[in-house]
Q: What sequence folds into this?
């Protein structure tokens, strides 16, 4: 069944959409009250963030827009040393969208939220003219368990841990768009357990960041700039799957600049590096983690290449490729 | 010979300064990405050449595209790289912001589905490139004819690399040797460089794109120069043959013929372009309308960069007013352009 403008009228059809799709899947005591606002109990300091998702195509190998929308916000909260607790979800649906498709997205969101231990406690739906597309905004609240984690907190001597292979999400989305058949799946995943395990193990974590748009290169440049340090990474330590490497070679892409949706870096005190690596490796989605470099005095990001040459790593300039998350 | 020995020899080179031109933008990129400049002797200078199709595309051609895109019921289909390059008035990005229909495609063949979906729109594919992309344009034409598609035409700006290299050999005597383009050579074969190597006494070495391949090619060039040998050597033999891809060449020759080409910043180079043959003019969206316009913005030295006269850092605008976000010249715009690559990697 197709969604038309009447589903956004606020009347019967809107109610049906909320009841039969969103309440059915997001089902929790706070949302089910259907008040104007969710009323929440939280303790201590909170982290609070928002993100919007406009990906094309809506469904891809390894996930869909709903999974991205939950993981994106969960990960942003987790990177600040917070335990994600509550999300809101706003849907802007273009007329012509398939109701079953919307339900499938909602179902994925519910499953991902469950995995991440968060409740979707408030929501909104609008229907606009268009061609069957869907845009989702999520916002989220998390309770901070370690408060001094910051992009400006990197210190000389710190070690950089990357949680796994680069480029999978970007390559999966591009493959879908270009009609290329391969086995590359998006890495879209919630990273809350990796972050929590690092903190629970008492690792001195100075900075965490999920490696999304702009890629590792951009995140590391932000860390170097904000912390007033330089970053050195080692080319042969950076994990990229054989398939993604081949994909990049053909299209002239560089995994360092490609978006990921289930990867993070943790920048930790040098003496905690091995313990931190173990903590990431034993967490879901962290099995292929590596130590990829160190923080040094100076500025900018440099890479020691496989040939033992040196390469400057700048931020991503411009768009180059269409938006993919 | 082991890689370590090659690196050691190139690092310790202390003879006459040598200038090697890497023709292809992908080589320029790989040289930076593998840090080759930081591990070889400063006496071996690597200079970027004319191998970025976007950088050498004439402004008149861009004007033609933007004009078409602004016409009612017209839509220009293009590779992403072309979006930001300015003609004399506008870039396609700017035209799009003014309401023009412009769409970025990843593959020329995706144009077919686009044209079949919207029959009342006239599509124009911006067919830009070298020998490498031309066979795909030929396949696109095959498909357009097979499916009897009436609303899709090509506006071509296709260049061939050999006349440009010939121009450089004739005019730029300071270049000692060439790292021949890998991708183009897959189509043309390594044979095409033989005449230039013997006439101008320059080594031409075809190389793959990994750092190790490029080092091996530089080593080969240095050995040839030392022994006063000037030969074509193919070190990319798993992809490049002497004769090239004859099936691809047949496809090119079916649809295209040689014509004079306009290179941005350089001007006209005889027989350096490929244009649609007369018998296929119904698929031609005005490719023959190229003209020379005195084109580079004031102070911009992209032409000197393309010809290997200067390195991007020697241009007075580089990094000061010309950056990837505010590109003045075409070499800064493209991902394969020498200035853009230098900016991002040095």
A:
């Amino acid at each position: 069944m197709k969604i038309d403008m009447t589903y956004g009228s606020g009347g019967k059809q809107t109610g049906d959409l909320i009841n039969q799709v969103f309440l059915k899947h997001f089902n929790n005591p706070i949302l089910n009250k259907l008040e104007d606002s969710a009323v929440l109990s939280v303790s201590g300091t909170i982290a609070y963030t928002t993100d919007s998702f406009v990906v094309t195509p809506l469904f891809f190998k390894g996930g869909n827009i709903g999974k991205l929308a939950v993981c994106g916000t969960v990960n942003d909260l987790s990177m600040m040393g917070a335990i994600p607790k509550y999300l809101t979800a706003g849907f802007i649906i273009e007329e012509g969208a398939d109701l079953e498709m919307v339900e499938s997205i909602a179902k994925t969101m519910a499953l991902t939220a469950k995995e991440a231990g968060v409740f979707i406690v408030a929501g909104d739906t609008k229907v606009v003219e268009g061609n069957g597309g869907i845009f989702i905004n999520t916002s989220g609240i998390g309770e901070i368990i370690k408060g001094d984690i910051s992009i400006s907190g990197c210190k000389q001597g710190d070690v950089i841990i990357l949680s796994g292979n680069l480029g999978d999400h970007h390559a999966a989305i591009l493959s879908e768009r270009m009609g290329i058949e391969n086995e590359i799946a998006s890495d879209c995943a919630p990273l809350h357990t990796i972050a929590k395990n690092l903190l629970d193990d008492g690792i001195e974590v100075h900075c965490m960041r999920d490696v999304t748009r702009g890629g590792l290169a951009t995140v590391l440049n932000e860390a170097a700039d904000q912390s007033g340090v330089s970053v050195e990474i080692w080319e042969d330590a950076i994990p990229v799957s054989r398939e993604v490497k081949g994909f990049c070679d053909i299209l002239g892409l560089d995994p360092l600049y490609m978006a990921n949706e289930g990867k993070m870096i943790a920048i930790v005190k040098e003496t905690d590096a091995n313990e931190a690596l173990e903590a990431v490796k034993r967490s879901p989605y962290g099995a292929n983690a590596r130590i990829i470099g160190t923080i040094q005095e100076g500025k900018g990001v440099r890479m020691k290449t496989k040939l033992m040459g040196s390469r400057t790593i700048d931020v991503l300039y411009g768009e180059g490729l269409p938006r993919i998350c | 010979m082991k890689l370590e020995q090659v690196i050691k020899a190139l690092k310790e080179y202390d003879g006459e300064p040598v200038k090697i031109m890497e023709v292809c933008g992908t080589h320029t990129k790989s040289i930076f990405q593998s840090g080759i400049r930081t591990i070889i002797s400063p006496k071996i200078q690597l200079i970027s050449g004319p191998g970025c199709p976007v950088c050498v595309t004439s402004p008149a051609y861009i004007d033609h595209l933007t004009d078409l895109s602004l016409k009612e019921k017209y839509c220009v289909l293009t590779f992403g790289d072309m979006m930001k390059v300015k003609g004399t008035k506008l870039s396609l990005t700017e035209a799009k912001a003014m309401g023009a229909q412009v769409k970025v495609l990843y593959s020329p063949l995706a144009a077919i589905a686009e044209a079949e979906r919207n029959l009342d729109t006239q599509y124009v594919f911006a067919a830009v490139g070298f020998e490498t992309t031309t066979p795909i344009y030929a396949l696109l034409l095959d498909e357009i004819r097979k499916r009897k598609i009436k609303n899709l035409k090509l506006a071509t700006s296709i260049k061939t690399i050999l006349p440009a290299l010939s121009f450089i050999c004739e005019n730029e005597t300071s270049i000692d040797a060439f790292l021949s383009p890998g991708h183009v050579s897959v189509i043309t074969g390594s044979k095409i460089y033989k005449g230039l190597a013997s006439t101008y006494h320059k080594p031409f070495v075809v190389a793959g794109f990994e750092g190790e391949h490029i080092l091996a090619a530089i080593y080969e060039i240095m050995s040839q120069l030392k022994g006063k040998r000037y030969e074509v050597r193919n070190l990319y033999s798993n992809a490049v043959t002497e004769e090239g891809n004859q099936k691809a060449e047949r496809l090119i020759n079916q649809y295209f013929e040689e014509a004079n080409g306009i290179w941005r910043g350089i001007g006209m180079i005889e027989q350096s372009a490929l244009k649609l043959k007369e018998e296929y003019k119904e698929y031609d969206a005005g490719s023959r309308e190229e003209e020379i316009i005195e084109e580079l913005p004031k102070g911009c030295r992209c032409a000197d960069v393309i010809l290997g006269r200067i390195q991007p850092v020697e241009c007075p605008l580089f990094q000061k007013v010309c950056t990837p976000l505010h590109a003045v010249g075409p070499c800064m715009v493209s991902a394969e352009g020498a200035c853009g690559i230098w900016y991002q990697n040095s």
About this structure: Chain B has a mean pLDDT of 91.
